[in-house]
Specification:
Layout: H1 2-19, H2 24-76, H3 96-143, H4 149-177, E1 185-188, H5 189-206, E2 210-215, E3 220-223, H6 225-242, E4 248-256, E5 259-266, H7 273-277, H8 297-308, E6 311-316, E7 323-329
Parallel strand pairs: 2-4
Antiparallel strand pairs: 1-3, 4-5, 5-7, 6-7
Helix pairs in contact: 1-2, 3-4, 4-8, 5-6, 6-8
Length: 330
């Protein structure tokens, strides 16, 4: 607007000069007036606008720093043991993502700490039984005048159970608390299963059981070898444990479409639907025929299946009338 007014005044001045209707002094006077009006038109918006702009900037900085101060106070006032989400309202949208990421980190830390606490509590609780048995058998051996082989057998069995329990607890803790991704290997599942059966054969032979392995092809899958070994050994151990002496276990591999399926069938009593629903509850045992099991097997199986992206399905074995565990590899 200032420039338009100055332009009109300049045009009027030039017209008067051309028509010689104005003196030199008058030209100088009107020129100075035009310059003064032009400068004043430029300066007064700054005089008014700068204080307003200063107030606006101060308000924005104050509100932002106030939000950061509230966030700082919320963090400072927290107990070192508190891992709950930080709740601060009215944060600017630029700071909200930072708080969301911080809360996400706290949630992950909380889960990890809870796993560690549960692991410690479970270990302390479950190790009491085998350790008490070991102590009792040691006291019997000390008091007996004649050392009976049965006493040593019971002592060895208690040691084996404690060792098995520690092994299972450590396996479960490793899978649950791992923060890194387990690398997958290109694995010959056919050779892998044959090797695992060979490792377990002394247990099978001790119960005079029969195991059949049907490998109709040389299949390969992508899986973490260590985790798959823990998973398969737990399923096979359950099949051996729950199948009766001279019972039968079938292990088979086959492919349907792009998926490889591993099935383990046993001749045990199987599971009711209610028992299937309770699988994964720690230290839960169903009609255990020996004291060797830890009750952690299915917790480990379910967690590894989740980590590896495996689909585990339970059903009744048509041939053996026991439990059939089917694993689908993705």
């Amino acid at each position: 607007m200032v420039w338009f007014d100055a332009r009109d005044e300049l045009e009027e001045l030039f017209r008067k000069i051309i028509e010689k209707n104005i003196s030199i002094n008058k030209i100088t006077h009107e020129k100075n007036e035009i310059l003064i009006d032009l400068l004043w038109g430029l300066i007064w918006p700054l005089i008014i606008g700068l204080p307003i702009l200063t107030v606006i900037i101060y308000g924005v900085v104050y509100l932002t720093s106030s939000s950061i101060t509230k966030l700082q106070k919320a963090i400072t006032d927290r107990s070192p043991n508190s891992l709950e989400k930080i709740e601060v309202s009215g944060l600017p949208k630029e700071i909200s993502p930072l708080l969301n990421e911080l809360n996400s980190l706290l949630s992950r830390v909380k889960v990890s700490v809870e796993h560690e606490k549960r692991f410690t509590a479970d270990a302390a609780h479950e190790l009491r039984t085998p350790l008490a048995a070991i102590k009792a058998q040691a006291e019997v051996i000390r008091l007996e005048k004649v050392l009976e082989p049965a006493a040593f057998d019971n002592l060895i069995e208690s040691c084996d159970r404690a060792s098995r329990l520690i092994e299972q607890l450590l396996a479960l803790s490793r899978v649950e608390t791992s923060v890194s991704t387990f690398e997958k290997d290109d694995l010959s599942i056919s050779e892998f299963i044959a090797q695992q059966i060979a490792y377990a054969y002394p247990q099978i032979d001790a119960k005079s059981q029969v195991i059949e392995y049907d490998d109709s092809g040389k299949y390969r899958v992508r899986a973490n070898k260590t985790l798959l070994e823990i998973l398969f050994r737990n399923i096979l151990d359950n099949a051996i444990r729950y199948s009766p002496p001279k019972g039968k276990i079938n292990v088979s591999l086959n492919q349907k479409g792009s998926h490889v399926f591993l099935s383990i069938e046993d001749s045990g009593p199987g599971l009711t639907q209610d028992q299937v629903n309770k699988l994964g509850i720690r230290f839960q045992r169903f009609g255990q025929v020996d004291s060797y099991g830890s009750g952690l097997g299915w917790s480990i199986i379910q967690k590894i299946s989740e980590v590896e992206g495996l689909d585990v399905h339970l059903s009744m074995s048509v041939e053996l009338s026991g439990l059939c565990v089917s694993i689908r590899f993705s």
